[in-house]
Design a protein that fits this description.
globular, 172 residues, binds flavin mononucleotide
Length: 172
């Protein structure tokens, strides 16, 4: 069962990439086929919902075969990144009925909670049923070692288990 992970920022030096890689390994451990869909590859420079560009076609194929979707988003000025919205808006029908789990990332103490809540409003229009669980990676700059390995494996393991348990119950 294929559940891709959207990495929602293209920022140079992004910490969210470490989170996306961690979620990718947890998704695989939970028994899902997965990969990171990077906004750097799939986003546009302006809104284009024609689905005619090669990146949109590739993205469309991936979302069509997905059983659900996970988004990793940082919080920028209390919202989610613009490039993430451009990527999401490049297709539409493909999302319908697919459960969505969201992971927030921030340098501050709230773990991107405000960006996560804003994305939930977008998910309603995309007709994606939302997971109740979300993961909030607060103070992300302190969470991983120099090799990108999460430091507190046990605590994060417990949180991600709840997240993937709910996701599994929605797709299996
Ligand atoms: C334009 C911009 C706005 C930001 N606004 C917020 C914010 O509103 N709240 C917050 O906790 N962190 C904010 N940050 C810090 C990010 O949370 C921080 O960069 C973190 O590492 C996650 O984003 P990253 O994947 O780009 O590294 C902001 C960062 C940028 C670049």
């Amino acid at each position: 069962m294929y559940i891709p992970i959207i990495l929602g920022t293209g920022r140079e030096g992004r910490q969210s990439e470490k989170v996306a890689r961690y979620i990718l390994s947890e998704a695989k451990s939970a028994g899902f086929e997965s990969e990171i869909l990077d906004v750097r590859e799939f986003s546009r420079t302006a809104t284009d919902n024609t689905c005619n560009t090669p990146p949109a076609k590739r993205y469309s194929e991936k979302i069509r075969k997905a059983a659900a979707l996970i988004i990793v988003t940082p919080e920028y000025n209390h919202g989610y990144p613009g490039e993430l919205k451009l990527m999401l808006d490049s297709i539409y029908e493909e999302y319908a009925g697919k459960p969505l789990g969201i992971c927030g990332v921030s340098a501050g103490p709230l773990g991107g909670a405000r960006a996560v809540e804003q994305l939930r409003l977008v998910a309603v229009e995309l007709r994606m049923p939302l997971l109740r669980e979300a993961l909030y990676f607060a103070s992300v700059q302190d969470l991983f070692d120099d090799n990108g390995i999460i430091k507190d494996k046990d605590a994060w393991g417990r949180r991600t288990k709840k997240f993937f348990d709910e996701l599994s119950s929605r797709v299996r």
